[in-house]
Design brief:
The complex is a heterodimer. By secondary structure, chain A is mostly helical. Chain A contains 19 helices and eleven strands. Chain B is mostly beta strands. Chain B is built from nine helices and 56 strands. Chain B has a 22-stranded antiparallel barrel. In chain B, strand 24 and strand 25 form a beta hairpin. In chain B, helix 5 packs antiparallel against helix 6. The longest helix of chain B is centred in the first third of the chain and has 17 residues. Chain B is globular, with a radius of gyration of 31 Å. The two termini of chain B are 36 Å apart. In chain B, 54% of the residues are buried. The chains are: A mainly alpha, B mainly beta. Chains A and B meet through helix 1, helix 2, helix 3, helix 7 and strand 9 of A and strand 29, strand 35, strand 36 and helix 8 of B.
């Protein structure tokens, strides 16, 4: 009897357990079918996730910021004895000697391409017209950077498997795609707010496309760009549409646009990434941490510096060089020291105004001189330090600071309009800003928030300098220098004309290895 | 119970009983049991076969038992071969028990069954209790360290309860842990430690891992069998590529109940220090390097000494065992309290093992085995991190500490520091980090013997582990450098839960097919389910801090700063593994042995195009000494073995085959998070093995030599994915082209050189010579990520064609320029070269034991030769630049004839590669057998054990036997030292006895 029971039990257990169908089960993540079944609420969630995915590529110091700034006359990442060698990854950026293994270039190319994928992937979940337009705007925005940096933009169709290599659009093809996309989606985009893709953000981006059209036609055109009047007039027309929307006004303080509460007071901002203090933010605090000295408040990483040649482009009294900008919970700053902008010379304790010292006990005096490799005993203090986001002392420790990251703002639009006029476009009147390049430039310069004097005249070189002064460290410098033919030219701590190949970043070798559609840029 | 009502049945039973009684009269049988040297063996169980009658031998090996004239006596004792002797109407019996190793009848545990050693066809090494390492052992793998040819067991660090790296037959691990599969009494383990990780607490996150085997008390283990070649491991299929280690726990013996007790007490201290400047040298160095004299703070301290201590170790084990022919049991309890040599570190372990084996029915055909192993271990974890910056890990802080700057004034800690310089004593005080892991491994296995050659067994097991970790940082520590919070404190509570369920059905066959041919086989089905989940909560203190009340902040975490709350939970994708397997072993005349196995594994981890895989093996052996033509008296065993097999490895993150969409903050979806790959399958290993076993001079000399050739293909690897894909992932798991080949020879020789009554000398040596090469990869793989100042993103190891796996690949250092003090490199450092092999070419284990009267001295040494170690500590913690910042540097830097310039950029190079050859006196035990004390206490002995007494090496770090986890992108590193937990030297005194 027992034997029969046992055999029965054995039989039952083998049957019940022995024929398990092996299906993957995920209890902490979703499958595509589960996302699809959630409808437009899920598409909205994906879109919101997409905006968050832009945080690291644009706000961390290791991505767009260092590639578009440290490769220029505005920023350097010196090796300071035992600190900041990091396998030379920073040095080669400023020296313009990067190669296809450079980690900064690898990560940025991957992240921007990943954003292209993420934006495209939303389109397969039946989004609303506005959701689709916002996703396509984000895609166009990152595609512009890929086109600008590498001349090659990877893409896929919505729903395409990631197993196959993605396809590639190059130079003029990529630009045409972006322009077509932007023109198509503007009607579906909302008017605001600045923290989401909106009509004026798309227009400002389209301005960049037309302004750089002569640059991005081919690999060769980047070295000798030509500018068509028709394109310049498009730039001007788009600027006027933005101006005439009446959405933006100049702020009382230049740094209001970057302040912790810039969601409210940053009236010049057209397109931003909203950081919510204490809740959720990108690593925008790295702008000040990456440059401030260890012994400052808050303690920094004592890394990046700006160059004195660039600093000297500002006239005395230009408030864009820096001000004391109190923010909630900031120390009393009895000496009224500069707390945002450029930090030069002796630094002070913001509570007692005592002179600060470096870690060796020497006075903490930021010197104008800075070298790519610092060798002296003063290696901790060399270089002028610059950041333009006022420090959010309330949330700095927690990491989620409140300062929204600024992608595009009104001053850039006006300066692009001025440039388009200088490059053969026809001046128009819109708003209160004048119809000539000089009027536009001087309008900005003489704003009380800037406090600079009016220029007597403006040519392209002066306009480039003005773009530097107005938009420094906003990650447009590399694009501007290329358009003005100055990128490869010598500048401080790079005393040579760079090889022509450095006009484009190399396609990272590891991606060439996995995608035969990508071609290495010439010279690498 | 039903009363027996029928008088007829009762009388029949009585009659039958009397009949049995009458046929063979019961009489008293006395006798002596001795060992091979003629010495009386105490404590041997003497049982009458088929009855519950049993006794034990006394101190002189004498016994007395009542048995029938036709009965069979069974003599058994741990460490000796069980022997059966028929009484044959004798009243006095003298017998000798052979030790198990020399016994060809020794039973070896193999997958899903057992085999006699002489029937083995594969490469299987067994270590039993008698030969285990002695001393303070926290996990079972330490029992066999240095004992087995071809098996390299490396303590990753000196942390009590820390993980070990086990490599069986060389390194073929491109990704994953590379650890063998552990099977405890038929239950395969998942290898996941339930100790939760903790994020960055300002002093790095990645603490050295905890050993997933900590839950087993080494004192409960009777033997460990290591399946090395694929013909032996293939029965474990897709998880067997790195070998299989079978752990067998002690079981009750039939006979009188007995209590075994042992206790030990020991003290640990640091084995070897890293040399940095003392206060006097530091002052000289300030002048020498022209650094401001203000860095001379007037004191004289040794910061490393300040955070080290003498670690106290206590260990108590008690076991009750006994049983009858139909029911045996063993219950053991163990307690270990091991203080680490670093302040506020250590492990407390509470273990138990309850097992019982029953036989039911008059026929005893129905069996039931029950085994429950509950445990709890509490680890105090010091803030020593694998990946923190130099100043943010306790050991680095101590090495860098300015030796002229006082750590304490009176009892109060001074100069607590901030930014990147911290008082290590202050940090040690400020960090409380305690993990408590509770586990239960329970199995129940009913079996039924249909006939004497066919048995069915069902095994259900559940392995449950749950860990809670509470971590706090006192507000005295001001970490404004890393997170801006000026001294408010931090608290983190994390939990994890790891569960494995198993169902196994086996049908075992042991049938004599003809008079000369025997078939031993097994047929089985197995289903395993693995799950892993957890959660964590953390917060910084509120403005003003959590408070200075001396309370643990994790007790009131909710009163922290709300804006810093961090809550998370996770569950890994469920993994299911379903398999069928079979083995057939044919034995013809004990001369020709042939074994074939096959396993078919299906796993939810694999892609849908490759959900099932087959893992076959074949092996043959020839017992030459059994041949008629073989007539060499001196040789009592000569056996040739040949084997081939295929195994797999499925260590990659579950869910990699399928596209998954993740959740994001604030109700967002983060989009697709992984590159799916429906073609993903197991990594494949095929291995040839040829071996020879020789026993000479009546088993006084045993030699085993094996040649192996292992080729690993379809390497599982997270390749760089197409850039246009999920932003949160840069990799796609796939099977690479290319292979890793390990081939080599391993040999072990064991000799009983002298074997007299009062004096004996045994000597054993095992060695392995391994050659490793990688080929066919389409692109090099890099790993070995350095940490510390100035080396972010620096990888110093490569897996590439033509080089050994994990070859060091960096700048070639040519020496210093004497005038500038700058380092010079081949091709100015622009080109990287192959500069060293971290894999030992030769592994050596030496063990010897000397016996004189009642004294026994056993010594084990192990060594590894031909490998190099990368000194990341010297590179990035105590380099010359440190003194410019007022911190300490290595003595070797100061003593270098060339004055290194501060301007010399900190960068990786062959300068920091050191020879890693070592020979370590890992274990020496002197014991004295007291014997019986009165009537109650039996088999008493006392011992003293020294562990890590010394190491012979040129390596300048704490210990050349080191493997700090420097993995990159799932690719493990080998042989990199980075400010690790130092290795301890331990002296232990102990006592063993039984009741």
């Amino acid at each position: 009897m027992l034997r029969k029971i046992l055999i029965m039990l054995m039989f039952i257990s083998v049957i019940s357990l022995g024929c398990t169908k092996l299906d993957s089960k995920f209890e902490g993540q979703l499958t595509a079918n589960q996302v699809q079944s959630g409808g437009n609420a899920n598409t909205a969630a994906l879109l919101s996730g997409l905006y968050n995915s832009m945080q690291t590529p644009f706000q961390d110091q290791t991505r767009t910021y260092c590639l578009w700034e440290m490769t220029t006359d505005e920023l350097i990442g010196p090796t300071r004895g035992p600190d900041w060698d990091d396998n030379g990854v920073w040095r080669v950026l400023h020296a313009q000697k990067y190669d296809g293994e450079n980690l900064r270039i690898v990560e940025e190319f991957k992240d921007l391409s990943g954003l292209d994928f993420g934006a495209t992937d939303i389109l397969r979940y039946s989004p609303t017209a506005q959701q689709a337009a916002e996703a396509r705007m984000v895609r166009a925005f990152v595609d512009v950077l890929l086109l600008d940096g590498w001349g090659q933009v990877t893409y896929r169709d919505p729903g395409e498997s990631v197993i196959q290599p993605s396809r590639v659009r190059s130079n003029a093809d990529a630009l045409n795609f972006i322009i077509t996309e932007l023109e198509a989606i503007i009607p579906q985009l909302p008017d605001g707010p600045a923290s989401a893709a909106n009509k004026n953000a798309a227009r400002a981006l389209l301005m960049k496309c037309y302004l750089n059209k002569g640059v991005w036609q081919s690999n060769e055109s980047r070295l000798n760009p030509t500018f068509a009047a028709a394109d310049m007039n498009k730039v001007i027309a788009l600027a006027d549409q933005i101006i005439n929307s009446g959405t933006y006004t100049f702020t009382a303080n230049y740094f209001d646009n970057f302040a912790p509460n810039n969601t409210t007071i940053g009236k010049e901002n057209i397109f931003t990434a909203e950081n919510k203090g204490g809740v959720q933010a990108g690593n925008i605090r790295s702008r000040w941490h990456s440059t401030m000295h260890y012994n400052q408040n808050p303690g920094g990483w004592n890394g990046f510096a700006t160059l004195s040649d660039f600093y000297n482009k500002f006239e005395t009294g230009d408030k864009r060089k820096g001000v004391n900008y109190p923010t909630p919970s900031s120390p009393p700053n009895p000496g009224n020291r500069i707390t945002v902008g450029f930090l030069v010379g002796q630094q002070h304790d913001l509570t007692t105004d005592a002179n600060l010292k470096d870690r060796t006990g020497a006075p903490l005096i930021f010197t104008p001189e800075v070298k790519s490799v610092e060798v002296g005993t003063n290696l901790e203090v060399t270089g002028i330090r610059a950041y333009k986001y006022p420090i959010d002392f309330v949330n700095d420790g927690g990491g989620n600071v409140d300062n929204d990251y600024v992608y595009l703002r009104l001053a850039d639009v006006l300066l692009m309009k001025a440039e388009a006029i200088l490059r053969g476009g026809t001046g128009t009147t819109a708003g209160v800003y004048g119809s000539t390049a000089l009027a536009l430039v001087n309008y900005i310069r003489t704003l009380p928030s800037r406090g600079a004097t009016a220029l007597a005249s403006v040519n392209l070189d002066q306009l480039l300098d003005e773009r530097g002064r107005e938009l420094y460290l906003e990650s447009w410098r590399r694009q501007d220098l290329i358009r003005f033919g100055k990128y490869l030219a010598p500048f401080q701590e790079k005393n040579y004309q760079s090889d022509n190949k450095y006009i484009l970043f190399p396609i990272p070798n590891r991606f060439l290895a996995v995608n035969p559609n990508l071609k290495q840029n010439p010279g690498y | 119970m039903r009363k027996i009502k029928s008088p007829r049945l009762l009388s029949l039973l009585v009659a039958l009983f009397l009949l049995v009684q009458n046929v063979f009269a019961q009489s008293v049988v006395t006798g002596t049991v001795s060992d091979q040297n003629g010495k009386g063996l105490p404590g041997v169980t003497v049982a009458v076969k088929g009855t519950s009658t049993a006794t034990q031998t006394d101190n002189d090996g004498k016994f007395s038992i009542i048995a029938a004239g036709n009965a069979v006596l069974v003599f058994s004792s741990v460490g000796y071969a069980t022997t059966e002797v028929p009484v044959q109407n004798r009243t006095s019996i003298a017998t000798t028990l052979g030790t198990q190793e020399s016994s060809l009848n020794e039973v070896v545990v193999i997958g899903y069954g057992t085999s006699r050693r002489r029937d083995l066809t594969g490469a299987v090494s067994s270590v039993n209790e008698k030969n285990f390492n002695k001393g303070v052992l926290t996990s079972p793998d330490q029992l066999i360290q240095g004992k087995v040819a071809g098996v390299q067991i490396t303590n990753n660090s000196g942390q009590p309860g820390g993980a070990t790296t086990i490599k069986i037959r060389g390194n073929s691990t491109v990704t994953g842990s590379g650890q063998p599969l552990f099977v405890v009494d038929g239950v395969p383990l998942s290898g996941t430690s339930p100790r939760p990780g903790v994020g960055d607490i300002g002093f790095g996150g990645g603490n050295p891992a905890s050993n997933p085997l900590n839950f087993i008390n080494p004192a409960d283990i009777v033997s460990i069998d290591i399946l090395k070649d694929a013909s032996a491991t293939a029965i474990y299929g897709s998880r067997a590529a790195y070998g299989v280690v079978l752990i067998t726990t002690k079981k009750g013996q039939s006979g009188q109940a007995k209590i075994d007790f042992n206790a030990s007490y020991g003290v640990s201290s640091i084995m070897k220090k890293i040399e940095v400047l003392n206060a006097q040298q530091f002052r000289q160095a300030l002048t020498y390097y022209n650094v401001s004299a203000s860095n001379d703070k007037g004191g004289d301290v040794d910061a490393l000494d300040a955070i080290l201590r003498k670690g106290r170790v206590q260990n108590y084990n008690v076991a009750v065992s006994g049983g009858t022919e139909t029911g045996r049991y063993r219950l053991s309890l163990g307690y270990l309290d091991q203080q680490g040599i670093v302040r506020k570190s250590g492990i407390k372990k509470y273990t138990a093992d309850l097992n019982a084996n029953f036989k039911f029915l008059p026929s005893k055909k129905l069996g039931l085995d029950v085994n429950i192993i509950p445990s709890q271990y509490i680890e105090d974890i010091a803030p020593i991190s694998n990946d923190a910056g130099a100043g943010n890990s306790l050991i680095g802080m101590a090495l860098q500490w300015n030796p002229t700057l006082p750590l304490k004034v009176g009892d109060s800690i001074v100069n607590v520091g901030g930014n990147s310089i911290f008082n290590p004593l202050g940090v040690s005080e400020a960090i409380n980090d305690q993990s408590k892991v509770t586990t239960v491994l329970a199995s129940i296995a009913p079996s039924y013997k249909f006939t004497n050659w066919l048995e069915y067994k069902f095994l259900y097991s559940i392995s449950y582990g749950s860990g809670i970790r509470r971590t706090m940082r006192d507000q005295n520590i001001n970490l404004n450098n890393t997170n801006g919070f000026t001294g408010v404190g931090f608290a983190n509570v994390a939990s994890a839960e790891v569960v494995t369920r198993q169902v196994t059905h086996t049908l075992s066959i042991d049938k004599r097919l003809s008079s000369d041919l025997n078939l031993n086989g097994v047929l089985g089905y197995e289903y395993l389910k693995f799950s892993n989940k957890g959660s964590s909560e953390s917060a910084n203190g509120p403005s003003g801090g959590f408070g200075k009340y001396g309370l643990d902040y994790t007790n009131y975490i909710q009163y922290g700063d709300k804006s810093t709350y961090n809550i998370s939970s996770y569950i890994d994708p469920l993994v299911e593994l379903q398999s069928v397997f079979a083995r057939a072993a044919f034995n013809y005349k004990d001369k020709y042995l042939l074994t074939g196995t096959i396993r078919r594994d299906g796993s939810t981890k694999f892609g849908k195009n490759h959900q099932y895989g087959n893992f076959p093996s074949f092996a043959a052996a020839w017992n030459i000494y059994k041949e008629d033509f073989f007539k060499v008296d001196a040789i009592n065993l000569l056996k040739l073995r040949l084997g081939w097999g295929k195994t797999g490895n499925q260590e990659f993150p579950a869910g990699s085959a399928v596209a998954r969409i993740g959740f994001g903050n604030n109700g967002n979806l983060s989009g697709q998070i992984n590159y799916d790959n429906p073609d993903l399958k197991w990594q494949s290993d095929r291995q040839y093995n040829a071996g020879i076993d020789v026993s000479l001079l009546n088993s006084a000399l045993n030699i085993t030599v094996d040649y192996f050739n292992k080729k690993t293909t379809d390497l599982l690897f997270p390749v760089t994915a197409d850039p246009n894909g999920p932003i949160s992932s840069a990799i796609r798991w796939r099977n690479l082209d290319g292979y890793v080949e390990n081939k080599g020879i391993e040999a072990s020789i064991n000799a009983a050189i002298v074997n007299k009554k009062d004096f004996g000398w045994d000597f054993g040596v095992n060695g392995s010579f391994i050659h490793n090469v990688v080929n066919g990869l389409s692109a090099p793989i890099y790993t070995g990520g350095l940490h510390g100042q100035g080396v972010s993103g620096t990888l110093v190891q490569t897996i590439q064609n033509g080089l050994p796996i994990n070859a060091f690949w960096t700048r070639h250092f040519l020496g210093f320029d004497k005038t500038t003090g700058l380092a010079t490199y081949q091709d100015e450092g622009n080109t990287f070269y192959y500069v060293g092999n971290p894999n030992p070419k030769t592994l050596l284990g030496i063990s010897t034991s000397l016996r004189y009267m009642k004294f026994n001295l056993s010594i084990n040494m192990n060594g590894a030769f031909g490998q190099v170690v990368y000194n990341n500590t010297l590179n990035n913690v105590i380099n010359v630049g440190s003194i410019n910042g007022g911190r300490n540097i290595a003595l070797s830097v100061f003593k270098d004839p060339v004055k290194e310039s501060f301007a010399n950029p900190v960068t990786s190079s062959s300068r920091f590669i050191e020879k890693g050859d070592y020979l370590k006196m890992s274990n020496a035990t002197l014991s004295y057998t007291i014997g019986n004390l009165g009537n109650a206490v039996r088999g008493a002995s006392v011992f003293v054990t020294g562990q890590n007494l010394f190491v012979i090496t040129k390596f300048s770090g704490f210990d050349p036997e080191v493997n700090v986890d420097k993995s990159n992108n799932f690719v493990p590193s080998v042989g990199i030292e980075y400010q690790p937990y130092p290795t301890a030297r331990t002296i232990t005194f102990g006592v063993n006895f039984s009741f």
